[in-house]
């Protein structure tokens, strides 16, 4: 009886050990962190069209007609650390598409700017900025692309 039990338990134990050894580099630490993403209209006298989505969630189309209006959402990173959101923004004659959230596995560029898991993307006249929450400085990340 003991031998049968060990024959069943040993493969499961090996899988468990493998998961524990691999987890720090491929998965998100538990508990799963909650993130807040904002896309803000910082344009002078222009309407901003916003469409953000992930593989699983389409956040829909939003028209931000005045400066200061924003679209925001909150989510938890999935267990496998593959959560990814991207956005398409448009103003008259210009557009930009970019990743608004991704899980960083090596270099913490996004995490260092989105202190306290709060990312603030701002559409300004010359491009899309990400607020560095620690320094309170908006950093230009994506210039606008001219529509053809």
TrEMBL record:
Signal among keywords: yes
Signal peptide: 1-27
InterPro entries hit by this protein: Self-incomp_S1
GO cellular component: extracellular region
One Gene Ontology term from the biological process aspect of the record: rejection of self pollen
The keyword Hydrolase belongs to this UniProt entry's keyword annotation: no
Keywords: Secreted, Self-incompatibility, Signal
Annotated localization: Secreted
Family under the similarity heading: Belongs to the plant self-incompatibility (S1) protein family.
Protein's name according to its UniProt entry: S-protein homolog
Gene expressing this chain: LOC103500111
